Amino acid sequence: MRVTQRAQRIEPFYVMEVAKAASTVAAQVAHTNSPMVFLNIGEPDFTAPPLVQEAAARAIRDGLSQYTPATGLPQLRECISAWYTSHFGVSVPAGRIVVTAGASAALQLACLALIEAGDEVLMPDPSYPCNRHFVSAAEGTAVLIPTTAAERFQLSADKVADAWNGHTRGVLLASPSNPTGTSIAPDELRRIHNVVSQHGGITLIDEIYLGLSHDAQYGQTALVLDDQIISINSFSKYFNMTGWRLGWMVVPEALVPVIERLAQNLFICPSTIAQYAALACFETASLAEFERRRAEFKARRDYFIPALKYLGLDVPVTPDGAFYAWANCRTACEKLGVSGSWDLAFTLMDRAHVAVTPGRDFGHADTHNFIRFSTANSMAQLHTAIDRLKVLLA
Ligand SMILES: Cc1ncc(COP(=O)(O)O)c(C=O)c1O
Prior knowledge:
alpha/beta; Aspartate Aminotransferase, domain 2; 2 domains; seven-stranded mixed beta sheet; binds pyridoxal-5'-phosphate; Aminotransferase_I/II_large; aminotransferase; NHTrfase_class1_PyrdxlP-BS
């Protein structure tokens, strides 16, 4: 069967290929004294807190399963708006918030609404792999710009200005980033947005990890800068609801009807049950639980990053958010006689039973020298992983 060029342009999501291989090895070692430790997938080991689970069960029992408006339940949009005020001290009217089937649907809607065939979108290398595919599914081209540790692996205003040409439509940023857990310094973000605005472009920023910020100097939403910025967010990470498929986007007022029209046609609405459940995320007890978990993520980071560095897996920029460690693995590769991060991931999987993600997914520049650890696993599992890596690398 002939498939489209569009579909052929989408590369495999290698994280998933590695995850498949890790599951196979995991099944083989499950009943040994060395079961697999999974530090490869970027999702919280926590699930939705009790009030959210109860709200979901209640919605099912009460038959609250009809379609909602395409932009989401009005009361959920209000809750998200209130959360921006209480958590970030910023006023974001509910009318500018569109609830979506995860950040993934929000990114698709934004790309379909704003990118014409042939448009170029600037993004950092390394960055979240699906982003370039959302752009390419909208017939645009993702332009990956290599970044350095000094830039916190983020774009700079100078690089955006240098790369801008007649085809450039805007920037797609993520702060904090996957795979690095590092954020854009607020002043740099302002400068980037100024460059973009001067060219009449779009600043699209993925803030899905913003709730999991560990450093006050970075933990502010880009929405404070300008109501023309498009911010993507989700219930997946801070709210621990990955499989519930719920997220949102904040868009300029004028874009709301456009996004609504696309959302009506493409998705009808996000999951109704998940939306009713998500209302309970904003109860005091749930918010307290999310903050307790955020502190736990920080404690894991504070243990894991120095331990990696001790093993020669240097993490050039300490993550200020999310739950990742982007580690330079060149020394480890030399020590184990493997040629780069792809082979190293399989070596660690086979010899230490520790699953990690090789850099390959995230870009092309220096990604063969990096592996990504996800610290979204229990402290006990992180200790086990370090003990096993020590045997190979110390
Ligand atoms: C940076 C980034 N954006 C978007 C997503 C997709 O999130 P969602 O589950 O909300 O679709 C992920 C998932 O890992 C991510 O890391």
